[in-house]
Automatic annotation (TrEMBL):
Cellular localization per UniProt: Nucleus
Main localization, broad class: nucleus
InterPro entries per the UniProt record, alphabetical: EOBI/EOBII-like_plant (IPR044676), Homeodomain-like_sf (IPR009057), Myb_dom (IPR017930), SANT/Myb (IPR001005)
The organism of origin for this protein: Solanum pennellii
Protein name: Myb-related protein 340
DNA sequence: AAAGCTTACAACCGCCTGAAT
DNA sequence: GATTCAGGCGGTTGTAAGCTT
């Protein structure tokens, strides 16, 4: 795989900043300047080093490509194991994960994950769905008559909102849609209610958003919203 | 050999946060 | 306390190379 001169053709934006692939000359200017003056103050780096690049662009180039000590080459099986383990623990906290993989950047790990694992998320079989849906249902009934999402992160809140319309009816609002999906009557305790319940949309929730709920649940104090997320998680909804 | 698909990854964008004013 | 701004982070995009059909 060719590194370097790929992607966007070099051009300038409305503000006159250069965009696109970095040239060897630009790399040299940036490296020399940072080696001399140290990291930080990226906006002044771009000016002082004679680079017509934004501070953000300079920082990114340095951190992901020019910084000394960066590893090159394929992720090793050991590194892959660490990535899998830490991702299970923290979700898409790429910079945090990168701290445990010396020489690897968050960008590299993120790209690796998306390429190798993003599309290989386990799809639950029907039996699993039934079990988990039953748990969700029971937990919601037992613990909350009115589930608030006010304490959830915006991301998590975007995924799912559950509310009780009356004592016996619940509805799920996926992605804050205009038309919430109504659950069958609470009196049903068998599997039949899950059969009738159109959950496909819920099961297709993007993996990152599931992780967002997981993270929210793991980090926040118990509250209705996060507590519910914990229940979802414990019930196996996030896999 | 050519077309289409997949993989890899550099680089951008938008949002968030914390420090400075 | 409000505003501004730089830096950091995660998500996304664009494109070349490799692979498959």
């Amino acid at each position: 795989m060719v590194r370097g001169m790929m992607g966007w053709g070099a051009n300038t934006n409305e503000q006159g900043w250069r965009k696109g692939p970095w040239t060897p000359e630009e790399d040299k200017l940036l490296s020399e300047y940072v080696n001399l003056h140290g990291e930080g103050r990226w906006s002044s780096v771009s000016r002082c080093a004679g680079l017509n690049r934004t501070g953000k662009s300079c920082r990114l180039r340095w951190v992901n490509y020019l910084r000394p000590g960066l590893k090159r080459g394929h992720i090793t099986p050991q590194e892959e194991g660490i990535i899998i383990e830490l991702h299970a623990l923290w979700g898409n906290k790429w910079s945090t994960i990168a701290r445990y993989l010396p020489g690897r950047t968050d960008n590299e790990i993120k790209n690796y994950w998306r390429t190798h694992f993003k599309t290989k998320v386990k799809v639950p079989v029907k039996q699993d769905k039934k079990r988990i849906l039953r748990q969700m249902r029971n937990q919601t009934q037992q613990n909350y008559t009115n589930v608030s999402t006010t304490d959830m992160s915006p991301q998590a809140e975007e995924v799912i909102m559950i509310k009780s319309d009356n004592d016996n009816m619940f509805s799920i609002n996926y992605n804050n849609d205009e038309d919430p999906v109504e659950l069958p009557p609470v009196t049903t305790t068998s599997d039949t209610w899950t059969e009738n319940f159109p959950m496909d949309g819920l099961w297709n929730i993007d993996d990152e958003l599931k992780v967002a709920i997981q993270n929210q649940a793991a980090t926040a104090n118990c509250s209705y919203g996060t507590d519910y997320a914990v229940n979802l998680y414990n019930g196996g909804f996030i896999f």
